[in-house]
Specification:
The protein has 199 residues and is α/β, with parallel strands linked by helices. The chain has 6 helices and 7 strands, in the order E-H-H-E-H-E-H-H-E-H-E-E-E.
Length: 199
């Protein structure tokens, strides 16, 4: 279960493999110049908000995004191993293809995590970040957001672009399951203010 605590979620800045539409997984790719600019723009936007801590994956594309933001907003940065992206095994460095649909359906991929194991690990990482109180910022991956979709959004399909920022607010009612998702920022525009209700 996702800890019922408000938080911000930000996907890392762009890498060359993002630009080329290649699966990165745990291959430790760096930000490209566009990714650095995206992170700096996100930092300027986040400087207006009170963030108690930044929880980041250890992989460079997320960690450097987090470091650039932390330097601007003066919030402590904690690296959480369980926030690392999914291990896609032999398909890292390859474009998505039919193998990905098969993997989602439960077909094993050599050297890769299973979808369920990855989502459970991501949930553990998210909860570790939320333990810092206040309103923490989690910086991770589109894959990590699958755990948010499963445990907070009822499976609702929400795509997360590079350096897009969302505010997650848990329901007030004890038995309610639907979180409020508010899209706050995208690097292509100054900000976004789109709310989604979980289906």
């Amino acid at each position: 279960m996702l800890t019922r605590h408000p938080f911000y979620f930000l996907r890392h800045g762009e890498t060359e493999w993002n630009r080329l539409h290649l699966m990165q997984g745990q291959t430790d790719t760096p930000l490209n110049p566009t990714g650095v600019m995206q992170a700096e723009a996100a930092a300027r936007f986040l400087a207006k908000r009170k963030i108690t801590a930044i929880a980041s994956s250890p992989l460079r594309r997320a960690r450097v995004t987090a470091e650039l933001i932390s330097a601007q907003i003066n919030a402590p940065l904690v690296v959480i191993k369980d926030l690392a992206e999914c291990n896609f095994g032999v398909y890292e460095g390859h474009p998505p293809g039919p193998w990905r649909d098969d993997w989602f359906a439960g077909t094993p991929v050599p050297g890769a995590e299973t979808l369920d194991n990855f989502i459970e690990r991501s949930l553990k990482g998210l909860n570790a970040g939320l333990a810092y109180g206040g309103r923490p910022l989690v910086i991770a991956y589109g894959g990590t957001f699958w755990a948010v979709r499963r445990y907070a959004l009822g499976g609702q399909l929400v795509r997360v672009g590079n350096c897009e920022l969302f505010a997650m607010t848990p329901p007030k009612a004890a038995r309610a399951k639907k979180w409020r998702l508010k899209h706050l920022f995208t690097p292509e525009g100054s900000q976004a203010q789109t709310e989604h209700a979980a289906a």
